[in-house]
């Protein structure tokens, strides 16, 4: 289209009280504004402004044109915003705190090595989430709650759980190697509980047919992360989610004397419906690949 510069100047002048004010907004001279308005008036063949001394007002034709230029520049700005947003390489991810600290953060460097152009920004939170209101692209959760929002729910991995404790603690209560016939001869177990997974021990004991263990001592913690750290420190035995304890099992900080069983819950990603952002897809696929290794292969059932 011809005279795009003139249309931009007209758009600004139409919302100004004078050409002088429009010139100040555009960092141009009064004469430059007047010249471009004259070019546009010659182009459309009609006057667009009425001069009132130092002030101007739109003619009826000017008001009609201003309506369309306003829509046009608003649409153009929306397009610019869309391009800038789509080229932004940050993914804002909400993830459960313990999963973030004990599993995701130690592995995130692998994703960054594979995708150096994508910046993953983590925030820790659990339970229900409103992605748009909180400003998140994705939310990684254990699916143990109801969610009101209609999000896409992407499966990551089935969760397996089992009692975990330090080798030193186990020796104090059962001076034998952990195996499928583990028996407690020295003293009852001190069961470590967390308020964020209040029924973890009861659910596991019922599913594993080990309800006799519930007769032990009990100690409670406010958060799951503290509960697992207490187990590492030898304060008792906790129900561990396999992805959250796998590294500690591998380095011998924890043992799982009764193995692991399915918890009837999954780790999932929530995302807005009908969105196919390539960066989000890359991150979700990486999560699935990494978490596919988080199913125990030698569990005692």
Automatic annotation (TrEMBL):
Record Gene3D superfamilies: Periplasmic binding protein-like II (3.40.190.10), Winged helix-like DNA-binding domain superfamily/Winged helix DNA-binding domain (1.10.10.10)
PANTHER family registered for this protein in UniProt: HTH-TYPE TRANSCRIPTIONAL REGULATOR (PTHR30537), HTH-TYPE TRANSCRIPTIONAL REGULATOR TRPI (PTHR30537:SF74)
Protein name stated in the entry: Hypothetical transcriptional regulator
A GO molecular-function annotation: sequence-specific DNA binding
UniProt family annotation: Belongs to the LysR transcriptional regulatory family.
Keyword Transcription annotated: yes
Domain of life: Bacteria
GO biological process, any: DNA-templated transcription
Every HTH lysR-type domain range: 1-59
Keywords of the record: DNA-binding, Transcription, Transcription regulation
Keyword DNA-binding: yes
Record-linked PROSITE patterns: HTH_LYSR
């Amino acid at each position: 289209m011809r005279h795009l510069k003139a249309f931009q100047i007209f758009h600004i002048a139409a919302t100004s009280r004078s050409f002088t004010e429009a010139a100040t907004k555009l960092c141009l001279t009064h004469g430059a504004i007047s010249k471009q308005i004259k070019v546009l008036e010659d182009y459309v063949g009609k006057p667009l402004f009425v001069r009132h001394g130092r002030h101007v007002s739109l003619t009826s034709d000017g008001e009609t044109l201003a309506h369309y230029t306003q829509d046009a520049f608003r649409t153009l700005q929306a397009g610019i915003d869309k391009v800038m947003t789509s080229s932004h390489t940050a993914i804002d991810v909400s993830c459960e705190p313990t999963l973030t600290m004990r599993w995701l953060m130690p592995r995130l460097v692998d994703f960054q090595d594979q995708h150096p152009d994508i910046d993953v920004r983590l925030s820790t939170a659990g339970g229900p989430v409103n992605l748009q209101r909180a400003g998140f692209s994705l939310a990684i959760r254990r699916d143990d709650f109801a969610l009101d929002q209609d999000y896409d729910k992407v499966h990551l991995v089935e969760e397996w759980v089992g009692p975990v404790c330090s080798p030193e603690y186990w020796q104090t209560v059962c001076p034998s190697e952990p195996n499928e016939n583990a028996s407690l001869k020295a003293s009852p177990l001190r069961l470590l509980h967390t308020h964020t997974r209040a029924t973890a021990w009861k659910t596991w004991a019922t599913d594993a047919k080990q309800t006799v263990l519930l007769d032990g001592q009990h100690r409670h913690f406010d958060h799951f992360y503290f509960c697992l750290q207490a187990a590492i420190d030898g304060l008792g035995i906790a129900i561990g989610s396999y992805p959250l304890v796998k590294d500690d099992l591998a380095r011998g900080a924890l043992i799982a004397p009764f193995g692991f069983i399915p918890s009837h819950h999954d780790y999932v990603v929530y995302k807005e419906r009908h969105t196919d952002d390539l960066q989000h897809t890359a991150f979700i696929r990486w999560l699935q690949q990494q978490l596919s290794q988080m199913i125990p292969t030698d569990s005692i059932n």
